[in-house]
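Progress against Task 2.4 (sequence-to-structure conversion) is shown through the following example record, which the project officer requested during the mid-term review.
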Amino acid sequence: ARAMGDYLVVGVHSDAEVEQNKGPCVMKEEERYAAVAGCKWVDEVVRDAPYVTTMEMLDTYDIDFVVHGDDITTAADGSDCYQLVKDAGRYRECRRTVGVSTTELVGRMLLLTRDHHIRGSRSVRSPIQGVDAAAVADFSQGIPAGALTGIAHYLSTSKKIVQFSSGREPAPGDRVVYVDGAFDLFHTGHIEFLRRARELGDYLLVGVHDDQTVNAVKGSSFPVMNLQERVLGVLQCRYVDEVVIGAPYSVTKD
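Structure tokens generated for the chain above:
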């Protein structure tokens, strides 16, 4: 959507609007506002945007056209939420990303599947070998063993990762900050953490652990999102400069 214009305004519906027209929200209203504001391609967020986009709203925010995926969105009465702007010739469409959606992620959690995990080398060495077992025990406490169930998943490409990357290298003298984690189901807590980390320096490098490492620590069907999905989730955050894909669990001097 951002590539289609020069300034991206994103309308976020209130909890009440979503529940009336679609169903219960997974994330609360304020969390969704913060999540969209944290995306590096977003220039402005419209809070409590109407579920059916009107010409009046476009004119209020000086918007030239609306962009949506190629999946049809309908209101509670069955009408097309974008019919008014379509009729006015102020609507454009982009291809919907197949295999990653709220429905898909909820399905993975309910089915406790690990089919979406990216398998690494079949080395006998544990990805957390050398780490004190007691230090990570709390992460998997009380979690049942997961079942392997067939389910779709999204596969990124090197081109997609390049599109998400800032491409910026640290300048001489820059203070480089490193943080790492699973960053599964990227949410507002992650965004706030990354914002604070970025404030400590000039360049933020984020390590994202691979699926085998996260699963070895948390057990069951975790992570819910695979490595590629989690990397793209971190890269879209406006506070992140670069990502280390498959970062080691233990930080070393090297």
